[in-house]
Amino acid sequence: MLIQVLMAALATVSFSVLFNVPAREYVFCGITGAIGWLFYLITCSMLGSIAFANFIAAIIITVVSRLFAVNRRVPVTIFLIAGIFPLVPGAGIYYTTSHIFNNEVNLAAAKGIETISIAICIAFGIMVVFLIPQKLFMIGKRKGKA
Amino acid sequence: MNDSEKIFRLVMLTGEILLKNGAEIFRVQETMLIIAQYYKVQEIDIFTISNGIFVTMSVDGKTITSKSKHIPIAPVHLGRIAAVNNLSREIVAGKYEVDEAIAELHKISVMPYSPNSLRIIFAGLGSGSFCYLLGGSAFDSLAALIAGMFLYIFILCLAKTKTPKVLMNVFGSAVVTVISILLYSLGIGDELDHIMIGAIICLVPGVAITTSIRDFFNEDYLAGTIHLVDAILVAASIAVGVGVIFKVWRLLGGI
């Protein structure tokens, strides 16, 4: 599992480079991605539901991203897009279209529904955390500095 | 150009840069509104979709300016978004004149992408680590790393030629499939499927589809639809590129 988490960090840093994140934020993007993947793995093995694991991980990633964003005074998008990358169902949507291409309609439908439900879970997780007022994260900032 | 026109240009340019480089719809609108409010714009209406901005505003209550601008979906550049965010904060803090702010925005809009060599290396590392996350073995990851780097070199070359995005994805995924099959035949990697998914991860529109759902939740239905269609089109062109090469390979007697 440790290797998995390290790999998630590496993947997140890689994509923050490709998304042209400012260099001084690379490390924080990596941390966000690693924490998110850790929680994804834990929830997945405890509950066995991929969709729910995505939801929990999205919540954690958004909380961490917002804390970093307040502390480092950059838009939350930076950590969010990079950190969420290991979760987003890129592979899923590729498999869906690939099944359609190979005339495997049933497999395509199953993959397609899974992809959309994962995306909905992630978006829902992000939205829930964005409902929390900014002030609460400011408190986190003061604590962080103390 | 009088002051109200300058303010209008400033607000418009801010929105343009944010949207072009991948900011969320609500962030684009919010930032534009904050700057407009700081300059005491009396009336402003902004309507943003994934690939366009429509603004009408009146600064002194008399002159009404409006503009609609088409902004094609472009590669994400989070550094520029961070820079605009910083600038808008400083504008509101009163540190910039309108002219200076516009000049600064022009500088931001041409902020360089990460150096190509760095992007190629990290595209490889990203592919390799993703392959591992999605269940590949260490060997698979190595193959994905190599294929991912070649894919990115190929994309960078194509980007100079103004190839349409759809074709770029078809060609890119075809190239990556050929390389993966070659590596696999040479004995690098255990499972072709795992290598493939890692190698094409730079192309797949995972973020786009999640953004699309987020737009729907924010009631930006039009923006959501555009992102969704974009994501499906990209995924479909990747599937075509990969599928064609696999069909040819099978015809030639591969597995």
What does the secondary structure layout of this molecule look like, with pairings?
The complex is a heterodimer of chains A (146) and B (255).
Chain A: H1 2-18, H2 26-47, H3 50-72, H4 76-84, H5 90-101, H6 105-130, H7 134-145
Chain B: H1 3-20, H2 25-38, E1 43-49, E2 52-58, E3 64-70, H3 78-92, H4 98-109, H5 116-133, H6 138-159, H7 165-185, H8 192-199, H9 206-217, H10 221-251
Antiparallel strand pairs in B: 1-2, 2-3
How does this model look, in words?
The complex is a heterodimer of chains A (146) and B (255). Chain A is mostly helical. Chain A has one domain. Chain A is built from seven helices and no strands. Chain A has helices at residues 2-18, 26-47, 50-72, 76-84, 90-101, 105-130, 134-145. Chain A is globular and about 50 Å long. The two termini of chain A are 32 Å apart. The mean pLDDT of chain A is 87. Chain B is elongated, with a radius of gyration of 22 Å. Chain B has 255 residues and is mainly alpha-helical. Chain B has helices spanning 3-20, 25-38, 78-92, 98-109, 116-133, 138-159, 165-185, 192-199, 206-217, 221-251, and strands spanning 43-49, 52-58, 64-70. In chain B, α1 (3-20) packs antiparallel against α2, α7 runs antiparallel to α8 (192-199) and α9 (206-217) runs antiparallel to α10 (221-251). Chain B folds into two domains: 3-109, no CATH class; 116-251, no CATH class. In chain B, a hairpin with a 5-residue loop joins β2 (52-58) and β3. Chain B is 67% helix and 8% strand. Chain B contains ten helices and three strands; from the N terminus they run ααβββαααααααα. At the A-B interface, α1, α4, α5 and α6 of A face α3, α5, α9 and α10 of B.
